[in-house]
Design goal:
By secondary structure, the chain is an all-beta fold. The chain contains no helices and 8 strands.
Length: 93
Amino acid sequence: EHEMLAGALTKKSMLPYRATIRARAFEEFDGWVRHDGEEFLYVLTGVIKLITEFYEPVEMRRGDSAYYDASMGHNVISVSEDDATILWVTSLS
């Protein structure tokens, strides 16, 4: 579930959004998410696991962040009891 932030702005070079992470397993996805640009992720609530194509999965908690090439396969799951929320900012190439 994604909520676009600053959606009324035009001519952006970044796409910010808040996401609620409901998935609990990689198998809930239809393969990797990958797209052009770079991505910054910041955990707002809960505990997530960032799963990437080329690196070991990383468990992240509130206040943790990651920056990565979005063309690399990636997915995020919640490993906390409740759904997690994250801030995602994607560059627009």
